[in-house]
Hints:
This protein is an alpha/beta fold. The chain has three domains: 1-121 and 258-327, FAD/NAD(P)-binding domain (3-Layer(bba) Sandwich); 124-256, FAD/NAD(P)-binding domain (3-Layer(bba) Sandwich); 328-428, Immunoglobulin-like (Sandwich), CATH 2.60.40. It has helices at 13-24, 64-77, 141-151, 166-177, 196-203, 263-267, 305-323, 405-413; strands at residues 2-9, 32-35, 51-53, 62-63, 82-83, 87-91, 96-101, 105-116, 120-122, 138-140, 158-162, 181-187, 210-212, 214-220, 227-232, 245-248, 251-254, 258-260, 292-294, 330-338, 342-346, 349-353, 360-366, 370-379, 384-393, 399-403, 418-425. The strands form seven sheets. Strands 1, 2, 5, 6, 7, 8 and 19 form a seven-stranded mixed beta sheet that branches. A five-stranded parallel beta sheet has the order 10-17-11-12-13. A five-stranded mixed beta sheet has the order 22-20-27-24-25. The radius of gyration is 23 Å and the shape is globular.
Amino acid sequence: MRHVKLIVVGGGPAGLAAAVSAVKNGIDPKDILVLERDTEPGGILNQCIHAGFGLHRFGEELTGPEYAGRYIQMAEEAGIHITVNAMVLSMTDNREVTYVSPESGYVTCSADAVILAMGCRERTRGALNIPGSRPAGIFTAGTAQRYVNIEGYMPGKRVVILGSGDIGLIMARRMTLEGAKVLCVCELMPYSGGLARNIVQCLDDFGIPLKLSHTVTEIHGKDRVEGITVAAVDENRNPIPGTEETFECDTLLLSVGLIPENEVTRGAGVPLDRMTNGAVVNQNRETAVPGIYACGNVLHVHDLVDYVSEEAEIAGRAAAMRILGKSGDTAHSVTVKTGFGVRYTVPERLDIPAEPEESVRIFFRVTDIYKKVRLVVRDAAGNVLVKRAKTAVAPGEMESMELKADMLKALAADKCSEITVELEKMEG
Length: 428
């Protein structure tokens, strides 16, 4: 069995940023094994040819391939070898990873630390229970994106999109630019799941209607999609009789959610958060299984790839510190809980060292659209640690709050068992 110091599962933006960070923090690139199942590194960004990436990370607007290219170049300059066509089959809790590739065959490799960066997958029609037969012309938005941007095929000419996540919004614009007619985008919830800028740039600028609190109730056609019936839904998300509207179309694109790709994680006995479907981690992105870290969309679905890179750098640095024996002991652990208006947080746990030197950033998503609120972090006694006013928050956009090192030290000194992240409505 081969042994390396660090295995990174995934060669997308998270995996590459984590590997580069590990090298910057003292790990020899020859001791790092990066496994990517596709034919080339870059992950999903290779098919995201639209601009809008890198504004936070690089201070300029890049396309997906350009953003990925920056990290591929960084990895090459750092001397990191990326093993492509390598499909990871399993991982154990003692950090033994089994993968297959045309070059190496069936391989089991152990490591001092493993960073999971497998990304996420799309929900398919099978999860939705939409009545109708199984005609051609039904695609997930990401599959359609690959067909158009990489394979050079058009999925159809008259399109209905179910779901207003960012991929669905971007594909509404992409299909329009390629000559298709996007009839509408339907969203089950009373708010969009995508970024506000994508609603404006991808729908409003092209006159594409967004039907909130609507869903697809029937798919027509046997061999090929011939039409889609859409209906409004009530507060319980059940279709309202009499509100049905049928569109003649040949294509239905589904943008109905992303699921972290955590089969390998689950197989190693890593506990998962039921809200994120990703691993439960501390501020270093270390899971409950020592030496196994997670970052990027395999941990929780991000709205911006810039935040993926930031998170991956945290995981890469922490893994390097563990490998080099510099991570230090945890003096006190604090559970991060969710309060009013907050769906989940990452991290879910703070493992505070005896002398904390760095601040910790807590990422979270809200449960609904709220206006005029304060983002608040409280300790177990109800004391406010941090607060910030916001004119509006929405589920489609990630929020974050920062806890300074002195706050962490105080939490440890007070033996605080938990903190709560919540929203607080403002008057007026």
